[in-house]
Amino acid sequence: MLTKKQSELLRFINERLKETGVPPSFDEMKDALDLRSKSGIHRLIMALEERGFIRRLPNRARALEVLRLPESASPSTPTTRSGRFPVIEGNLGRVRAPVAASAGAEAPSSVAIPVMGRIAAGTPISAIQSRSHTIALPPDFLSLGEHFALEVRGDSMIEAGIFEDDTVIIRKQDTAETGDIVVALIDDEEATLKRLRKRGASIALEAANPAYETRIFGPDRVRIQGKLVSLLRRY
After folding, report:
1. pLDDT by residue (tens digit) across 140-172?
2. CB within 8 A of 1, min separation 6: which ones?
3. Which of 194, 184, 78, 92 is nearest to 137 (CA)?
4. Is 194 one of the catalytic residues?
5. What is the 3-state secondary structure (H, E, C) of the chain?
6. CA distance 233 to 89
7. Adjacent-strand bridge partners of 216
8. Which of 53, 119, 183, 232 is the most buried (most CB within 10 A)?
9. Secondary structure of 46-79 in the HEC alphabet?
10. Which of 30, 82, 143, 194 is catalytic?
11. Residue 81 confidence class, pLDDT cut points 50, 70, 90
12. Percent of the chain whose pLDDT exceeds 70
């Protein structure tokens, strides 16, 4: 289900592509939706891309492709770099998670996930705190393996759709691929949520907010604690 603004933007892009074959500019989209800034358009485009309605074509300016409209939604689930992410919206917010394959036996109705304190999506804070409480999630919202949850503080990952007070669900693992959003422990003292980039022998922790610089470390200074697999937001 799309929000009103997401639906309006999707239809505007689709109509412009039909008319001219060229997607509208950010300024045109901003004016069409009566928004004050282009940052709002950027967030809407990211949301539509995450949900599998549009695709941004690489190495081409303003290149957008409409994959489907709400009334013609296909049964297949949109694929992202991190897996398959069905989206649920409601008064509990949004949950995104890879679909875990069942093993034949009937799955439990919910799984208790420990909340291990706060994680910085900004300037790194002290290492992850001890377990504070648990939350219950349906098994289909989790991937295989062991998970924990962290409450987000800071705004450095807003362009990846991660905002302050969100709860991120992390699968425990000590390795990750370039492009994964991970919990990284720096010098065994500071924990942060960032996108991982491998640069030769170095590790770059990249923010999703232009106000923050990418931080580069030697491989012996960073330990991967886990990979982001889902996100819970309460409205």
Report:
1. 778 788 899 999 988 999 989 899 889 999 999
2. 70, 87, 89
3. 92
4. yes
5. CCCHHHHHHHHHHHHHHHHHCCCCCHHHHHHHHCCCCHHHHHHHHHHHHHCCCEEECCCCCCCEEECCCHHHCCCCCCEECCEECCEEEECCEEEECCCCCCCCCCCCCCEEEEEEEEEECCCCEECCCCCCEEEEECHHHCCCCCEEEEEEECCCCHHHCCCCCCEEEEEECCCCCCCCEEEEEECCCEEEEEEEEEECCEEEEECCCCCCCCEEECHHHEEEEEEEEEEECCC
6. 9
7. 204
8. 119
9. HHHHHCCCEEECCCCCCCEEECCCHHHCCCCCCE
10. 194
11. very low
12. 77
For range 87-112, the mean pLDDT: 47
Tell me, what's the pLDDT at 108? 57
How much is the pLDDT for 6? 86
Number of CB atoms found within 10 A of residue 9's CB? 26
Q: Of these residues, 30, 82, 143, 156, which one is catalytic?
A: 156
